Amino acid sequence: MRYRDFAPNQTSTYKKRLRTVTLCVLDDAEWALLTKIREATGPSRIIGVRSLAPRFQGFSVEIVCKDINAAWELFANWHDNSIREVCQAAIQDEVQHSAAQTH
Predict the structure, then answer these.
(1) What is the domain extent for residue 96?
(2) What is the CATH number of the domain that holds 21?
(3) What are the angstrom distances between the C-alpha of 52 and each of 5, 23, 49?
(4) How far apart are CA 10 and CA 62, in angstroms?
(5) What is the pLDDT of residues 55-86, one digit of tens each?
(6) Quick check: 64 and 19 in contact, CB under 8 A?
(7) How far is CA 72 from CA 5, 7, 82, in A?
(8) Can you tell me the distance from the alpha carbon of 72 to that of 91, in angstroms, rounded to the nearest whole number?
(9) Measured torsion, CA atoms of residues 68, 6, 31, 86, in degrees rounded to the nearest 10
(10) Pairwise CA distance, residues 95 & 79, whole Å
């Protein structure tokens, strides 16, 4: 992806950019989770949704939060969820791999 593909097409202030979080959302379940995380972190507004197709699945979602701390909290909560999913997938792979080796 080139910078001009995801860069904002209008000038924005430095503080607004610091309040903006860009996340990758893959499926409907993640949209529901994003809604819950946004509600928990306070007022925010989705300012952009871009498809990552055809090369990747999902969407790039830009969210403006009320302040810099809320943006960091939103990003951290989303990141924690992503790491949790990766760990669960790795555990499932290990269990399946172990089960296949024992048979």
Answers:
(1) 3-102
(2) 3.30.70
(3) 10, 12, 10
(4) 14
(5) 888 899 999 999 999 999 999 999 888 777 76
(6) yes
(7) 24, 20, 15
(8) 28
(9) -90
(10) 24
- Stated pTM of the model: 0.69
Number of domains in the chain: 1
Which residue's entry shows tokens 């024992």? 102
For the CA atoms of 27, 31, 32, 38, what is the dihedral angle to 10 degrees?
150
- The structure tokens listed for 66 are 């009320």
Which residues are CB-contacts of 41 (< 8 A; sequence separation ≥ 6)?
Answer: 65, 70, 73, 74, 77
Q: Percentage of residues in the chain with pLDDT exceeding 70?
A: 86
Q: How confident is the model at residue 2 (pLDDT cuts 50, 70, 90)?
A: low
Per-residue pLDDT, averaged over 7-34, amounts to 80
- Measured CA to CA, the distance from residue 71 to residue 82 in angstroms comes to 17
Does residue 21 have a pLDDT over 80? yes
| Average pLDDT in the chain | 83
